[in-house]
């Protein structure tokens, strides 16, 4: 028993000496470091500037407005750049466009074919077309009302005895056995002849006369990149033949 208490006393003495040599805080160090507390800033400390909440909000607003203005300016620059690009994106049409021409009118088909040969010799193809039209002849003065050809002939003989010898008997749809006293290119000449016959106590009439005719046209296409060919001569021009540009169909 004395021995047990003696050992217990020795152990207590040894523990006391160990604790004295190594403090308690160093015996049980925690592995997690405790973060240092943020240092408080006192209002009374000199040299430090305190920003109030109002100033913070004002600064944030200013930054937002500045960012918006910068974005708007960038948009304007981008827009201007886009417009510039649109303005400069003009592509020249280098396609070989065709110009169409009508040549005529030709009263004679043979003449039209001859002119067509001039263009064919220069590697320009032409197409020949025809159309019907009325050709103005003039104003005809005539006497109507004859029931037969013999009656019209007797009127012609009576007028010839009075010096009016230019006459012809005409039969056409709606007009039979009429005695024509001439077709005048100028209306004033036709009116003069009419008054002359009326003085002889004849019922005289007058009307414009036309005749149907076939006219011919040449159609061709020429490249806009080449020199325009006009192969008509002075004779063609005097006959009223010309080369007229028109829109290609």
Can you offer a commentary on this structure?
It is built from seven helices and six strands. 41% of the residues lie in helices and 27% in strands. It has helices at 2-21, 24-27, 53-88, 109-121, 149-161, 187-198, 234-238; strands spanning 98-106, 126-143, 168-172, 175-184, 204-223, 242-246. The longest helix has 36 residues, at 53-88. With 249 residues, the protein is an alpha+beta fold.
Ends distance: 137 Å
**Percent range for β-strand residues:** 25-35%
Uncertain stretches: 46-51, 77-86
Query: Looking across the biggest beta sheet, what order are the strands in?
Result: 3-4-2-5-1-6
> What's the β-strand tally?
6
Shape: rod-shaped
Rounded radius of gyration (Å): 60 Å
Element order: H for helix, E for strand? HHHEHEHEEHEHE
Largest sheet: 6 strands, antiparallel
Mean pLDDT: 77
Number of helices: 7
Question: Pairing-aware structural class of the strands and helices?
Answer: alpha+beta
Overall helicity: 40-55%
What is the assembly state of the chains in this entry?
Answer: single chain
Short overview:
It contains seven helices and six strands.
Give keywords.
249 residues; alpha+beta; six-stranded antiparallel sheet; 7 helices; 27% strand
Question: Helices, strands, pairings?
Answer:
Blueprint (H helix, E strand, L loop, with lengths): L1 H20 L2 H4 L25 H36 L9 E9 L2 H13 L4 E18 L5 H13 L6 E5 L2 E10 L2 H12 L5 E20 L10 H5 L3 E5 L3
Antiparallel strand pairs: 1-5, 1-6, 2-4, 2-5, 3-4
């Amino acid at each position: 028993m004395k021995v047990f208490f003696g050992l217990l006393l020795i152990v207590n003495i040894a523990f006391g000496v160990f604790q004295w040599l190594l403090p308690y805080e160093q015996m049980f160090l925690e592995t997690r470091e405790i973060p240092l507390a943020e240092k408080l800033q006192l209002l009374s400390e000199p040299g430090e500037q305190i920003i109030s909440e109002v100033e913070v909000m004002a600064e944030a607003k200013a930054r937002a407005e500045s960012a918006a203005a910068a974005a708007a300016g960038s948009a304007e620059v981008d827009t201007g750049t886009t417009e510039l690009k649109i303005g400069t994106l003009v592509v020249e049409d280098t396609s070989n466009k065709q110009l169409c021409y009508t040549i005529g009118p030709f009263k004679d088909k043979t003449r039209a074919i001859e002119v067509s040969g001039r263009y064919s010799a220069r590697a320009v193809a032409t197409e020949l077309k025809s159309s019907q039209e009325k050709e103005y002849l003039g104003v005809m003065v005539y006497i109507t009302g004859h029931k037969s050809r013999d009656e019209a002939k007797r009127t012609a003989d009576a007028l010839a005895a009075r010096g009016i010898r230019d006459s012809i008997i005409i039969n056409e749809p709606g007009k039979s056995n009429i005695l024509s006293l001439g077709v005048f290119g100028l209306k004033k000449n036709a009116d003069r002849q009419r008054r002359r016959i009326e003085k002889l106590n004849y019922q005289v009439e007058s009307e414009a006369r036309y005749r149907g005719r076939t006219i011919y046209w040449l159609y061709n296409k020429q490249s806009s990149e080449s020199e325009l060919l006009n192969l008509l001569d002075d004779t063609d021009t005097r006959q009223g033949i010309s080369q007229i540009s028109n829109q290609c169909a």
